[in-house]
Amino acid sequence: MCPRIATDGIPGAAAFVPDAHSLAILQDAVQRCRGCTLYRNATQAVFGEMQASPANRNGAKAQIMMIGEQPGDREDKEGRPFVGPAGKLLDRCLKAGGIDRKEVYVTNAVKHFKWEPRGKLRIHKKPAASEVLACRPWLEAEIDAVCPRLIVCLGAVAAQGLLGTGFKVTKSHGTLQEAEGLPPIVATAHPASILRALKIEDRERQTASLIEDLRKAAAYRTSHAA
Ligand code: URA
Ligand code: SF4
Known about the structure:
Oligomer: single chain
CATH topology: Uracil-DNA Glycosylase, subunit E
Bound molecules: uracil, iron/sulfur cluster
Strand content: 5-15%
CATH class: Alpha Beta
Distance between the termini: 25 Å
Largest sheet: 6 strands, mixed
Number of helices: 8
CATH architecture: 3-Layer(aba) Sandwich
Shape: globular
Strand order of the largest sheet: 1-3-2-6-8-7
Radius of gyration: 16 Å
Number of strands: 8
């Protein structure tokens, strides 16, 4: 189903993903990935995690897997996903939407931070489709290890990575999507894009819409529970 060879001459992560799909083994191995060039300017790879209890973190099965775009500046330094400003907004929306983040496995479509310098700041740069494809074997290994009942894609990069480039989050957010070989998927806005909106009214409206989508995701999870 998924192409194993990335485009644009990028080798892709497949050769770096170990056969054993335990999260602890994957998390260790991803630090040595050279599947595309993004590792070069990043501090470390940021793998997915479930906050649960520390003892449970690496073995837990989550009902929901959330997929963002790529680590940001804070995530790159701390080595954990969604711990910066976008993560704080996500936490707030999850709570309002009735989902406990501790029960969610949170990860990103791309595991290394892509950025460009602006003065002393490192500004996020959107990953290319070829880099998302290159990194996909890690995501597949995570899905295999976690077996989520539902995937929630945060933003277009994650959504289009799984549902194709024709998928529009603005049009189809909050509705259940199907992709061959994957659990049901719901896409919604990325919290970082909400933070970038200039007007407070826009941020409030988009936040309310994200919460509404997460409420729907919580309901789908329950109605699809085995
Ligand atoms: N944005 C993302 O997509 N992922 C993170 O981990 C942080 C910010
Ligand atoms: Fe490997 Fe993904 Fe990092 Fe590229 S972004 S080096 S494919 S882990």
